[in-house]
Design a protein that fits this description.
Blueprint (H helix, E strand, L loop, with lengths): L5 E2 L3 E5 L9 H5 L2 H6 L9 H13 L4 E7 L5 E11 L4 E8 L9 H16 L4 E7 L3 H9 L3 E12 L2 E11 H7 L3
Parallel strand pairs: 5-6
Antiparallel strand pairs: 1-2, 2-3, 3-4, 4-5, 6-8, 7-8
């Protein structure tokens, strides 16, 4: 945990490294589940493309890109991002992906979402944080709702996934709601 940036009960978040492309990350984003659930993975990725993506995120002043690590065994199970941050409007997007299927439904995603919300609202002084999800990705929607986010809007037939037009659900949280739910 020597590089831990945000620490929860079951997981901690550390900065993603270029070397993370050498592990399971490439396999995760090339899996069918990534294509069906992530709004940003439409084509297979090569290792060099993944490394370029990681470098772009690391170099961006408007994004915080993290590896999700389990405690206490320090296993890399996914990624999380806060960004891009719109500094003038004090708004950002979050995203997370638990790539390691054996770690699904253990509460890691909700904990990561809360860590990102706390970081965004307490450290970055954001006013609003949003996330988008395919309407059929009910597990992701429920996870963000457990973290305190609420449906902000539904973008009808916004996404073309697996040969079908699908709605995109946008969830959001305002700073006032965050401070009411998480007063400490």
């Amino acid at each position: 945990m020597d590089r831990a940036f945000l620490i929860g009960e079951k997981v901690y978040l550390r900065p993603v490294d270029i070397s993370d492309a050498d592990g399971p990350y490439l396999q995760w984003i090339n899996s069918p589940i990534a294509y069906l659930t992530l709004g940003s993975v439409y084509y297979p990725k090569t290792k060099s493309a993944l490394e370029a993506y990681i470098k772009k995120q690391i170099d961006s002043p408007d994004s915080a890109f993290f590896a999700i690590m389990t405690k206490p065994d320090e296993r890399f199970i996914g990624t999380a991002k806060l960004g891009p941050v719109e500094h003038i409007h004090r708004h950002a997007y979050v995203g997370l992906f638990i790539g390691e299927e054996s770690e699904w439904r253990k509460g890691y995603g909700t904990e990561v979402a809360v860590l990102l919300l706390k970081y965004g609202f307490r450290q970055l002084n954001l006013r609003k944080i949003s996330v988008g999800a395919n309407a059929s990705n009910t597990a992701s929607i429920r996870m963000f709702e457990k973290a305190g986010m609420a449906v902000d809007c539904r973008r009808r037939q916004q996404l073309y996934v697996n040969g079908v037009w699908e709605d995109q659900v946008i969830l959001a949280m305002l700073a006032d709601d965050f401070h009411r739910i998480y007063p400490d």
